[in-house]
Amino acid sequence: MSLQRIFQADAYGQQPVTQNFWHRAFEPEVLGEPLQEEHSCEVAIVGGGYTGLSAALKLAQQGVDVAVLDARHIGWGASGRNGGFCCLGGTIAEDDELIRRYGEVEARRYFYAERAAIDLVAELLDQYEIDADVASKGETVLAHKPRRVDQLKDTAADIQKRYGISCHFHGKDELTELGMNASGLSAGLTIPVGFALHPYKYARGLAAAVKSQGARFYEQTEVLSIVPADDGQYVLKVRKGHLRAQKVLLATNGYSSENMPEWLAGKYLPVQSNILMTRPLSEEELKRQGWFSNQMAYDTRTLLHYFRLLPDNRMMFGMRGSVSAAPQARERMRQAARRDLERMFPEWAKVETPDFWSGLACLTNNLVPFVGAVPNTSGLYAAFGYHGNGVAMATYAGQLIAHEMLGEATNLAYPAFLKTAPTLFPFGSMRRHLLALSYTWFSLKDRIF
Ligand SMILES: Cc1cc2nc3c(=O)[nH]c(=O)nc-3n(C[C@H](O)[C@H](O)[C@H](O)COP(=O)(O)OP(=O)(O)OC[C@H]3O[C@@H](n4cnc5c(N)ncnc54)[C@H](O)[C@@H]3O)c2cc1C
């Protein structure tokens, strides 16, 4: 029995995270031993990232006997590797597209959910006293070319229309005053919602909260299959045992498999994202470059760069990855990230970048997340597909799906379209190659326009 995945095996191993600053700076305690022999629970959650943890928290609070299983350790996936932008997002469908497909009311419900998701993370940090190095007041979009300034104005109008939020426009001089000086920038726009956090501290803090509510963890426990049993329960098979559960949540997002269970085949598309991190920069180095803001920021490229200065003055610099997870491809991505960092921040051209890591985020063919029951089953649920913006939305989706599993109404905004199963991507298990064409076109577009 082996899991069929659509990236090379390397993407699912340790190599992409050996130089992960978040993991390196924060040694986790073991939360659970590998599952051995036979056990049972009411709800089994496969995947110990934000989705699984947030769902586990809600369920455990309601007295449900929950077990969270992760193939590695809790927070090992994208939840312990991301840029920590807790921001609006989760879909990459345009507003008009959402309205055309699902109607104005449903689309608005989603926009409301995006804001509520950020508030939810803030509440959890507060309620469980999770110290996750929170910083940044909203996020700032930076025009990487003069001709992209109009795009910022369009973004401000869209944000106003979508969320009723007024953004602040910054000319080049104001950006410099704000400590956001980088090569090629023409203007900026601050969207005053959201904040930055240490993603792994957040994941591990959530896990501690889950544990405090009585849930169990099984780490280093890869689920190999989920088989319906005669009594209506499910049997989750792992290498050295199995777990019987009344209900199961698939919370594997970009780390999902085509055959675990087969329903997932073709319904998700993992995409690689990479982060390069400098060593701590001195005050002098920050001053020379003119970047000393801790604002989380990204540029107007379609294949965008996302970056922010951490509390100890390391610069975190993220960009989308390649369609290959082979070691040579990862090295090329590291070099590309380094080249782009040097171009944007020429004063730091000689600064060491000891950390570089990659991870898998997840797209759906419908361009919106799926958060619902697996059709034609009883007791099997899934939540995935946050389109690279899951810090807030995966946390929120976890709570939504927990309500759904409990069969209780929620006063959280829960657009009905999130419960519609994603359509299939073309090209089956070769579908990641679809990305190659888009990447080439987007990078050309970013250079020309
Ligand atoms: C480099 C990078 C940067 C990002 N930056 C941002 C950002 O700044 N802001 C933002 O909002 N989002 C960002 N994202 C996206 C965000 O991290 C994800 O959307 C979010 O973490 C998804 O959480 P999750 O719990 O659904 O999945 P994950 O955190 O990926 O968890 C899935 C887990 O499932 C486990 N698993 C898989 N298969 C099995 C199995 N068979 N048995 C047992 N366990 C299994 C894996 O081990 C993994 O731990 C980024 C992603 C990446 C990769």
TrEMBL record:
The keyword Metal-binding does not apply. Residues 43-403 form the FAD dependent oxidoreductase domain. Pfam families: DAO. Keywords: Oxidoreductase. Signal peptide: none annotated. One of its GO terms (molecular function) is oxidoreductase activity. One of its GO terms (cellular component) is cytoplasm. It comes from the Bacteria. The keyword Oxidoreductase applies. This is Glycine/D-amino acid oxidase. It comes from Pseudovibrio denitrificans.
